[in-house]
Amino acid sequence: MNTVDDRIAAALRARAEALTEADLSPASPPVGRRWVQAARVRWTAPLLAAAIVGIVAAATVTAVQLSRSDRANPATTPTVSVPPSPSGVAPAPSASTSAPSQSQSPSPSPSQPQSQSPSQTQRPTESRPASSQSATQTPSATGAAPSASPSPTGTPSQAPPPVYERYQPLWPFGSYAEAEQWRTEGGGSQPWHLDPEQTALDFTRSYLGFTEIDQVTGTFFDDLGAHIGVGYRDPDGVSHTAATLHLVQYGTASDSPWEVVGSDDTTFTLEQPAYGSQVSSPMTVGGHITGVDENIVVSVLASQTDRATLAQVPAGGDGAAWTTGEVSFEQRGVLTIVASTGGHLQQVERFAIQGVHT
Amino acid sequence: MVRNEDVPELSPMADADSAVAALFQSHRLAMVRFAVLLVDDVETGEDVVQEAYAALHRRWPALADRDAAVGYLRTCVLNGSRSVLRRRRTVRRNPYPDADSLTVEGADGGVLLAEEHREVIAALQRLPRRQREVIVLRYWSELSEAEVAATLGISLGAVKSNAFHGRHAIAAALGGAE
Fold it and tell me: Is A274 helix (H, G, I), strand (E, B) or coil?
């Protein structure tokens, strides 16, 4: 079982449940318009004060700018309409001239979690160099990912660890050393390693064996890598996303290969055991699903040939929890747990993966 | 555990007083527990939760929807807890003679926990804020990764990454036990 997961959950429960109703101070819910008005009044004075300060500051800056403009362009402004600054020295820029800062906490939203399946392709606009020894580019299309990369002569970097170190590598490389070996020795062969879409499709079809899934339905790049929708087209020609796979570039070089590290689950999730956790037999696999008349097949893969089907679970509902109960397995090492469901249009219509290790 | 299905049925037209009062009765304790897991003391947690209910009451006309209400409360508690932690950091950076009174462990600091739980809670308290939030939402609130992402306003990938690192940090603090 997942000892750490169990211990975290148990400790949080113990800590939270140590607090009972009896421990709470007596309190009443807010009621009535008077309370609301009081709350508003409480903010009125500071807001008014802030507004006045802002107006005064803006007026001061405007006056100074006009004054400087007068001195800079005497020919065009022969008539002094605003008195020049007595000292002739512009005041230091003040933060108070800007609008009052706001908290950066996300504002509360009543919205429910939204699907994050990619709906359109968002390719990086620049092409990746065929080969580069500078190794200074990051895999991110946005440029906001950790930008520093190891340099033989560089100074120690304060940058956060590379994105690939944050995830459990699943396929096609078992380790960073393997990926680097391919990059430095075999970069010319199997060029699909440089294509995240092809890597995602090959993972789905060759490694997982879901051969009915035969197309990329969407591609999205962000600081955390590539999110590739893989799916199929139904008889009416409508495209369906079976899963959104998360890939990272396994290395900091521009020609580092892509690695599947997980899936971005929405309506069909695989949440237990936790991502990246250590597992042992028996374990319980579970998650949530939205759908009707589903038959979830759960498998575990240590390699393309070392695999086993663990359970089949009927499920359905709106965000309904599903679980296999305890299931035994013999696979060892880095494991990919796969949950798939289908049977309406084709055998596998949706799937989710979780990377764990023994 | 705060799950939307636990929320009592409320008419969409229920007025703010009765609706918020019902939620107050049914969820105050759970919300205070959630806040305490984030800010570490009951008194502050109660204040944060009271502010959250006040905000819900003000905004009720815009979210007369039972699913939205609990999510809104949870996010308000989360944001209120962040504000508390931010103020504590500011006080620590700029201490004044009475600063200790704002930074000491709360009255519940001596709460009796089994040794193994105390180790986990201590490790949790040392986590970066985001990782701690993800761990609490995943393991105590039992939210799905998508729900955690929506609550925190971050991507699914970021949720996974923070959960992964938070969990590993706790495991390391426990002596590498897995």
Answer: coil
